[in-house]
Amino acid sequence: MSAERGAGAYLGTKVLLDREEGGPAGYYALLSDALRDELIGLGLITAAQVRREVERLEAPGIHLGARIVARAWMDPEYKALLLENGSEAAERLGIKVGEAQLVVVENTPRVHNLITCTLCSCYPRSILGQPPAWYRNKVYRARSVSEPRKVLEEFGTHLPADIVIHVRDSNADMRWMVLPRRPDGTSDWSEERLQGLVTRDSLIGIAEALQP
Ligand code: FE
Questions:
Q1: Which of 58, 85, 111, 179 could join 130 via S-S bond, C-beta 3.0 to 4.6 A?
Q2: How far apart are CA 185 and CA 178, in angstroms?
Q3: How many angstroms separate the alpha carbon of residue 60 from the centre of ligand 1?
Q4: Active-site option among 122, 126, 144, 202
Q5: Catalytic-labelled residue, pool 2, 32, 87, 117
Q6: What's the half-sphere exposure (Cβ side, CA atoms, 13 Å) at 152?
Q7: pLDDT band for position 32 (50/70/90)?
Q8: Cα 145 from Cα 159, distance rounded (Å)
Q9: Max CA separation in the chain (angstroms)
Q10: Regarding predicted confidence, which is higher, 176 or 21?
């Protein structure tokens, strides 16, 4: 295996297609590697361009989700619209929802929402970028449904026993996002400052918003 082939294998099968560590490369992984190596060999693209493109695809756009949440925390009318029609609410802030319908669910003192995609890796990519590796992992996809409370605990999110957990299963038509609870002690904060408390994981429901 040449050095270039080695770099290609890394980008194609481990990063782009998220192949299990050490597992055999599947059909599409091999195809992707072969195609990229051929294009690099022909001088049409470079390995660095491939890496940059992967970086662009995976770069989280968390600031977009944070803008939506902070606005909803500040503005009850906007929050009502957000919970009724997520796509329309996002577009009102100039954020284009490129894929399926965006559905936003609110975490409250009684209900905690956790987002998953049991079938594959559906995720509001146009707002949050690419999903984290664990989100695409079969183990998360199965256990988020069968034992969500335990999964949350393993991620360091300990919920009181009386909070009900709703697991939201994304699909091709519907991308769920969480409106996390506004942390206490932030009543006099500006919208911009509030955005800093919204993390990617709080938008998936695997964590809560940061405490100030
Ligand atoms: Fe999916």
A1: 58
A2: 21
A3: 18
A4: 122
A5: 117
A6: 26
A7: confident
A8: 16
A9: 61
A10: 176
Task: Assign 10 a pLDDT band (cuts: 50, 70, 90).
Answer: very low
Dist. CA 193–CA 7, nearest whole Å? 41
pLDDT (tens digit per residue) in 172-192: 889 999 999 999 999 999 999
C-alpha closest to that of 123 among 132, 181, 212? 132
Structural tokens at position 66? 């944070």
| CA dist., res. 131 & res. 152, Å (int) | 17
Q: Indicate the pLDDT class of residue 1, thresholds 50, 70 and 90.
A: very low
Walk me through the domains of the chain, giving residue ranges and CATH numbers: 2-204 (3.90.330.10)
Residue 110, SS3? coil
CA–centroid distance, residue 83 to ligand 1 (Å): 22
DSSP state letter for 132: P
Report CA(171)–ligand 1 centroid distance (Å). Answer: 5
Going by C-alpha positions, the residue among 194, 174, 191 that lies closest to residue 183 is 194
CA dihedral 77, 82, 85, 86 (to 10 degrees): 160
Residue at 18: amino acid letter? D
Bridge partners, residue 114, by sequence: 167
Nearest residue to 125 via CA among 199, 204, 51, 188: 204
Answer whether 149's CB lies under 8 Å from 163's CB.
Answer: no
- According to the model, what pLDDT value does residue 6 have? 38
